[in-house]
């Protein structure tokens, strides 16, 4: 089974680019929601992300992972591959 990965981004956000780069490096297919300037979409994202409005916000199998620092921390801890394999 392959994990379902979703990421909310802004096209020029350096943290978004860094998080997507990690996912691409790992060969992960993901759904990207580019919400540049769309406050309604950002509000929906924040509702899913426990109120967090910063970007990116990343979900794996509908579980909120967090942002760029969070996904890189999971990678450093060796936990990201396990989450992506489920």
Automatic annotation (TrEMBL):
Domain annotation Glutaredoxin: ranges: 5-65
Keyword match Transport: yes
Keywords (A to Z) from UniProt: Cytoplasm, Disulfide bond, Electron transport, Redox-active center, Transport
Job description of the protein: Has a glutathione-disulfide oxidoreductase activity in the presence of NADPH and glutathione reductase. Reduces low molecular weight disulfides and proteins.
Entries under PANTHER family matching the protein: GLUTAREDOXIN 2, GLUTAREDOXIN-1-RELATED
InterPro entries: GLR_AS, Glutaredoxin, Glutaredoxin_subgr, GRX_bact, Thioredoxin-like_sf
Protein name, UniProt field: Glutaredoxin
SUPFAM superfamilies in UniProt: Thioredoxin-like
Family annotation (Pfam families): Glutaredoxin
Record carries keyword Acetylation: no
Family: Belongs to the glutaredoxin family.
